[in-house]
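User: I've been going back and forth on whether these two constructs are worth ordering. Before I decide, could you fold them both?

Assistant: Sure. I'll take them in the order you sent them. The first construct and its C-alpha cells:
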Amino acid sequence: MTGLGHLVAKTTALSRAAGRRMVGVLLGLLLGQVAWAQVIPTFVFTRPKARRAALKFDTHRNLIIVAARLNGKGPYHFLLDTGVNTSLLTNPALGDSLHLERGEEFRVVGAGGEATPLRAYRTNEVRVELPGGVVAPRMRWLLLSNDALNLSAYAGTRIDGILGSELFRSLVVAIWPMRGQLVCHAPDHYQAPRRWASLPLYLTQGKAYVEATVEQLPLAAEDAVAPLPLRLVLDTGAGHALSLETTADPRLHLPPTHLRADLGLGLSGIIKGHLGRVATVQLGHYQLRQVLTSFPDSGQVHQRLRLQDAARQGNLGYELLKRFNVVVDYPHQRLLLHPNAQNRLPFEHDMSGLSLLADGPNYRYCLITAVRAGSPAAAAGILPDEELLAINMLPVALLPLSEIARLLRAQDGQRLLLVLRRPGGELHSVSLQLRRQI
C-alpha cells in the first residue's frame, strides 16, 4: 500500500444483476455500508449476569487490532472498524478452514464504478468469541475471493478481516488507547463517568455521525474565517485524524499550504488527494489545533456522495480519537470523551517521503513502494522497490512497521542513517535528514 503513513483507504462496491446494490468498505477515507437487509448479529456476555468484559488490543499504524476465535478456531486477527456495517473476512483461506458455505455472490466494483475481478460471498452464520467473555453466537460475514485489501502488508502484522459495527450496536464499548484495552459494558447497567464530554451520536442507516466545529486556515492573511459545524462519520478504522470532502460543502476548501499525496489504495487503484491542516477541531469543550487533514480528490468521492451518504462532510479517524479515552455508546446514542496523555501531542506526518509495506515471514521485510517527489528520500537517491534493512544500524527486522513509521516522522531536521538493498542485490547507505513537509 502506498500513501499516508496514518491512512488506510479501501473502497469496494458490490452489485448483482437483479438490481444494483452497493456496499462500501471503508478503512479511513470512505464509509462502508451494506445496502441489503439482514438480521443484526448480537454480541452478548458469556457469563450469566455479567455487566462488563475487558479485552486487550494492539495498535499497528493507527489501526486497532483485536483477536477473535471463529467457530472455535483461531485466534484470528481483525481490524476494529465502526465505519463498516457488515464484517469482512479478507483472508479467503478462512472460508475453507472454517468450512463456510458461500452464499449469495456479489461482484465488486471500485468507488467510481470500475470493474474488478473481485467477488464477495455472504457466509453462513459464524460463532465469534472475543477474549474476556464476549460472544456473537450467530454472525454473518462477507468473504472476499482474495485478499485485495492487503491490510497485513500495510499494518506489518497478520490481519484476517474487519470486525465492523456489530459489536458497537450490541454493547457500550470503551476504548482506552494508552492501556490498549477495550471494555464492553451492558447497556442497561452502564453509567457514564463524570466530567467526560458527551456528544450526540447520530445513527443513520447503520452509520454513526458526530458533529464537530472545524476552523479552516485562511487562504489569505486578511481573510476572516468562520468556524464550520460539520457532520463527520465516526470511523475507528481510519488511520488518519480528519478527512474532509470539499465537494460535500461549498465552504470547505484546500488550505493554503497542502501536499499532493496518495491517500490510500483502493480496489481499483490509488486514492489520490491532498494533505493539509485545519486550524482547530472542536469536539464538545475540547479543542485540537493544527490537525492534519486529508482532502480526497472530488472524483474519488463522487460515487459515495451519490449513494445515500451526502449528509456528511468527512470523517474522524483514530489518529485524532486516540488522544482521548473514548466511550462509543450506540445504545444511548452518545460519544463520551476524556483527554489522555496523548492529547497535547502535535499531529505529524511522515517526514521522509517514503511509502512502506511489510512482506516476508512475520512481515519483517520492509519494502519501499513509492518515493514522493521533492522529499528528503528523493533527494537522497532512494528509489521504489528497494528494501530497507536498517535505521541507525538497528535492523528493521527487529522493529514492527509501526515503529519504523514513527522513526520516519520523529523530529524535523533529525538525521537517520539508512541501509538499503536495491532490487539487484546491491547494498548502499544514505544519510536522510527528516523534513516537515506539511
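The second construct, handled the same way:
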Amino acid sequence: MCTPKCSSSVNARVTNMVSGIPMANTPQRADAAGSIYRLAAVAFGHPLAELQQALVDGSFHAAFNEPWHQVTGREWPRCEPSADFAALEAGYIDAFVHGRRGKPRISLLAGEYEHLLGGQTRPVFMLNIQAFYRHFGLHAATKDEGRAEEPDHVIDMLEFMAVLCHLEARALERDADPSPYRRAQRDFLQRYLVPLLNAIHHDLARQKALALDATLIRMLEDLPEWTRQQLAELEARVGPYADASASVSNRPRSVAQNLWN
C-alpha cells in the first residue's frame, strides 16, 4: 500500500517543484506530460481485467512512472494492487458509480459540483467545455464508441489535455510556435481540470473505509498538485490566465471564436 500524503504543505511544495524543475522546452517533455494525462484517463475508466493484470504485474506503474519521472524528476510510488479484478471493480463502483444511497461517493463529473458551475446553468457549463473540444476538432464519444456524451467527465478532460500536449510536441518538432496549444492548456486547466481535480480530492479526503484501489487513490492525491504545477509552468511561459468571460457567466463562448491563436 502507498504511504498517505499530507495536504498541509501542498501549495509550498508546488512552488518548490516549479522553481526546482527545469522547464525543458522539448517535444519529449510535452509528450511525457501527455502520457500522464492519457494514462490517468485510462485508470479512471470503468475497470477492465487488463488493468488489474497491469497493476499486478507492474506494467501500469512502469508506463506511468517513466513520464512522471521525466516531468517531475521524482519516482512515482508503486502501490499494492487490489486482491483481484472483482475487488478492483467493486471498489470503483462503490466510489464512482453508486456507492452510497445509489449515488457515487466521489463524482467524476464537474457538473455535479455546484461550486464549479460559477453561476452558470449546467447546460451552459457543458457547452463551454464542448467549445474547447470543438475548437480543436474533437467531439465527445457517442453511444457506440463507449461512454455516452459526458464532456464534463474527468476522463474527457484528461484526454483533451493529452491531445493538447501532443499538438504542442508536434509544433516543437517542426520549430513552429507552440504558444496557442500552451495557452489552451493553461485556460483549460485553470477553468476546468484543476478545479475538478481539487473537488474530487476534497471528496476523497472525506471518505471512510473506501475500498478503491490504492493506485487510483494515489493518483487522485497526486494529480491535483501536479496539474497546479503544470498550470504554473504554463503561466510562466505564456502569461497568466485572464478570464475574459467572467461578466457573461450564462452565455457560452461562440464555437467559431478563435480562442487561443
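Notes on the second construct follow. Confidence is low (pLDDT under 50) at residues 7-22, 246-259. The chain is about 55% helix and 0% strand.
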